[in-house]
Design a protein that fits this description.
By secondary structure, the protein is α/β, with parallel strands linked by helices. The chain contains 36 helices and 21 strands. The protein has a seven-stranded parallel sheet, with helices on both faces. Helix 30 links the parallel strand 14 and strand 15. It is globular and about 95 Å long.
């Protein structure tokens, strides 16, 4: 009985069940990929995949692990059906009778947790089936198995100085004990034909990795090779293994079928049909003709140049870039399918469409638009769409379908399945952030890497691409070019201020017009000449800072002299925005004016209320004080915009909130300088470039001159940023040498800031109820169910969470070490309109 294949893997399945399921999932996922010739042969990838699957849990065949999992199975009340199976019950009974006392005696005085670890043993025995002559490939195989429950580390030695390929004496002794009580014969029965495992191979493995292993030759080989294929191989195979391993545990029945089904191409008329239903017959606005012209031009060029890899859509703000970009991606999806048709794959490969945005605040808006688009078409489903960011609530439809499959499925399990699909990017269309995308490549984290295999064969739309820090341009270009070469991944860069992301811009096809003649016309068209940028305040101060009191006098006078105009004032720090709001509140007649405030300091649900109030038609004249939180994706339209000094791309985004729909003649964007821009824009070279370019321009810059202005700025940034190349070169080198911890440390879009605390503000009855629900979730004993419950409540919870500066906030007693502080004393520090009250003008919150 003990030599049979009844070894247990989890409290509800045998090791054979788990490994065969992992094999089925990963085999299908890999078979659905298109792998181009510059990468590794598909036969090699398939061999490596199978070995990874069947050896990643080899260590579970030890008596140490079996005793542990048997005890867990007996305690598990949810899987009575499994443990009462005759063969499982007999196996458990025989193991306890024949081996339990021996194992317990052997463990006495030892570290039981270390003896039951299962990853390392399989990492080395896997090599007996992996007959490669390249030691780097051997190392990748070892590392993937060793680290499949954790983060990937630097290749040979982790930052904590633990060997990652070679063995030290302590590890060797541990593995020696595991080998002695491993059921080799039983495990061989699990392995498919062609794979073998033998106890006698341990002596050879031990000699190679303990006695003969030398770090320097392998390190030297790695440091001297420029081949980035190793990096992408490790990412791809690690991702496939994680998807299979977690997928087997989290997906049931129909959910597993959804994971393995071929993805559906989006209908070519999807956006056209939505446009007819949403806008057909409605009164035309002055710029509707230009929107349609741009839409048709992009569609025409997407069809014409669909075999290329890199595209841009450069259009003025307000010209419908979202629908235009989605339509282009659908046309490129069809081109991808045609490109990947072969005799072996006559249907071609259907790539996912991934829409990425810089801020979580605009993802819900984008996702709502595409959900409506899918609803409008008879041949599509909203279950094809998911959003993935830290505020995401997973697709509720998936959770409901999962529950209906089996009556006994718990809500927590349904959330887990939906979470798996969303975080793994398993649907046809994903709406996500730059962070999820880029930090899912430049990373060593287990959770982030699981979706990497779905980044291959994808079409990425990068909206507001200018938000990516310039210092990473070289590394991002390097990654994108290789993903295009290896996996035919395609990229669409969308913005009004197209940065020079690639050194050779000619490789990027501008979809409005590859010659840029028509692109220029969209910017210079008189119908889109909606506003002027007014530099008179900057020139008066010679582009230096002006006094706040002088500025407020000018602002108030302008507001009073223009009673029929709405105003938006954008400054760089929360402290300045609060001071301006408070001053205007005291000095303006609020019977005629609606004064509104918007910044990241106010609670997310309040922020949405303010945006809706700004967009509301009629009522009092609106005067909005804000930080740069309104720059991208917030669809608001005001007559006159005041913008504190910032880089040109940010100025351009702010200008996009001015006279957006050209309904009130001509708008004004007035630039000023309050001297705090360096708190937000730490790369001062961007500010210097902006100052130099603006100084060379007249006091008033018409919107139709912005195309040239933006091009000049982009070229100057690429040419003048000396740090750009250095930062990217370090990243590229770390990737080539498989130093994954170094890669993750060197790439951060939003740096951690320990100057602030996350505080829950219980400002209303609904918030109190959500906090009680949160506390109940934290008390759930089962860690997996607890995690699922917390994930489910997180979107609601975070609507009431904001950041307080540590130095200015008194933490309530008993909350000093809390991950999330319950701000029972919030009224002493926080205002629901303005956020955290910064009474000290020296404090600047960005």
């Amino acid at each position: 009985m003990l030599s049979s294949s009844n070894l247990i893997s989890h409290p509800d399945r045998t090791l054979k069940m788990h490994l065969d399921s992992c094999d089925e999932i990963s085999k299908k996922l890999l078979a659905m990929k298109f792998i181009a010739n510059p990468f590794f042969e598909t036969s090699f990838l398939e061999k490596m995949r199978q070995i990874l699957v069947y050896f990643h849990d080899f260590g579970k065949a030890t008596d140490y692990f079996q005793l542990k999992i048997i005890e867990a199975t007996e305690k598990n009340t949810e899987n009575d059906k499994f443990k009462k199976k005759r063969e499982i019950a007999e196996y458990i009974q025989d193991f306890k009778r024949l081996k339990k006392r021996i194992v317990q005696a052997d463990q006495r005085g030892a570290d039981e947790d270390r003896l039951t670890q299962h990853a390392k043993l399989g990492a080395y025995f896997a090599l007996t089936c992996f007959k490669e002559t390249d030691p780097i490939l051997d190392g990748i195989l070892i590392r993937i198995i060793r680290r499949h429950h954790g983060y990937l580390t630097n290749f040979l030695m982790s930052l904590s100085w633990n060997p990652q390929i070679g063995l030290d004496e302590d590890e060797s002794e541990l593995l020696e004990r595991q080998v002695a009580c491993t059921a080799f014969e039983a495990y061989q029965q699990i392995l498919p034909e062609g794979l073998t495992v033998r106890r006698e191979d341990w002596a050879i493995l031990k000699k190679r990795f303990l006695e003969d292993f030398r770090t320097m030759p392998l390190q030297e080989k790695l440091s001297q090779q420029p081949d980035i294929r190793y990096f992408f191989l490790q990412h791809l195979m690690f991702s496939l293994l994680l998807s299979a391993d977690k997928g087997d545990m989290m997906l049931k029945g129909e959910e597993k079928i959804k994971l393995l089904r071929e993805k559906q191409p989006l209908p070519l008329n999807l956006i056209d049909l939505h446009k007819r239903r949403a806008f057909g017959g409605k009164p035309s606005q002055p710029i509707d003709a230009q929107r349609e012209s741009a839409y048709q031009a992009v569609a025409e060029n997407a069809k014409k140049y669909g075999k290329a890899s890199f595209f841009s859509i450069t259009l003025p703000t307000g010209l419908g870039k979202t629908l235009t970009a989605y339509n282009a991606a659908i046309l490129l999806q069809q081109a991808f399918i045609e490109q990947t048709k072969t005799d072996a794959r006559p249907q071609g490969v259907v790539p996912r469409i991934v829409y990425t945005l810089p801020f979580t605040s605009i993802i819900d808006q984008n996702c709502a638009i595409f959900k409506e688009i899918l609803d409008d078409h008879p041949d599509t489903s909203t279950t094809w769409l998911t959003k993935n960011h830290y505020l995401s609530a997973y697709n509720e439809q998936y959770a409901l379908e999962a529950q209906s499959d089996e009556a006994e499925v718990e809500t927590a399990l349904a959330v887990s399945e939906a979470e798996y699909l969303a975080e793994g990017w398993e649907q046809e269309v994903i709406v996500t952030t730059f962070i999820q995308f880029l930090e899912g490549i430049f990373t060593n984290k287990n959770r982030d890497l699981r979706k990497f295999h779905n980044m291959t064969n994808a079409i990425f739309i990068l909206d507001e691409v200018q938000a990516i820090p310039t210092k990473y341009y070289g590394a991002i270009e390097f990654v994108m070019r290789n993903m295009a070469a290896f996996f035919n991944t395609k990229f669409i860069f969308v913005t009004a201020t197209q940065p020079i992301l690639f050194k050779k811009q000619a490789d990027i096809i501008e979809l409005t017009d590859p010659t840029f003649r028509r692109t220029r016309q969209f910017f210079e068209d008189e119908q889109l000449n909606r506003m002027d940028i007014d530099q008179t305040l900057l020139k008066a101060s010679d582009y230096g800072a002006m006094e706040e009191q002088d500025f407020i006098q000018i602002l108030i006078q302008d507001i009073e002299n223009q009673p029929d105009k709405s105003f938006l004032i954008i400054v760089n720090t929360i402290a300045q925005s609060q001071w301006i709001y408070n001053t205007l509140e005291k000095r303006l007649n609020l019977e005629d004016n609606q004064l509104l405030y918007l910044s990241s300091s106010i609670l997310p649900f309040k922020r949405l209320e303010v945006i809706e109030a700004i967009k509301a038609k009629g009522g009092k004249r609106k005067i909005v004080v804000s930080t740069q939180v309104v720059e991208a994706g917030v669809d608001i339209d005001l007559d006159r915009v005041y913008r504190d000094f910032a880089p040109i791309d940010s100025i351009n985004q702010s200008a996009g909130r001015c006279n957006r729909n050209k309904l009130k003649g001509r708008g004004i964007v007035k630039l000023f300088h309050l001297g705090k821009c360096q708190y937000v824009y730490r790369d001062t070279s961007l500010l210097e470039i902006t100052k130099r370019i603006l100084k060379s321009r007249p006091a008033f810059i018409a919107e139709n001159q912005l195309f040239e202005l933006n091009n000049e700025y982009a070229q100057a940034v690429r040419a003048g940023n000396t740090d750009l190349k250095n930062d990217s070169d370090k990243l590229i080198k770390a990737m080539q040498q498989l130093q994954l911890e170094d890669v993750a440390a060197a790439f951060t879009l939003i740096p951690d800031d320990n100057r602030f605390l996350d505080v829950f503000v219980p400002c209303e009855a609904a918030a109190e109820a959500i906090w009680k629900e949160y506390e109940a979730c934290r008390k759930i004993e089962n860690p997996f169910l607890r995690k699922d419950a917390l994930k489910a409540i997180q979107p609601k919870l975070l609507q009431y969470v904001t950041r307080f500066p540590k130095k200015k906030y008194t933490i309530p007693t008993g909350e000093e070490k809390a991950f999330l502080i319950y701000g029972r004393n919030w009224k002493s520090f926080y205002d629901l309109i303005l956020g955290f009250e910064l009474k000290d003008p020296a404090i600047q919150i960005i």
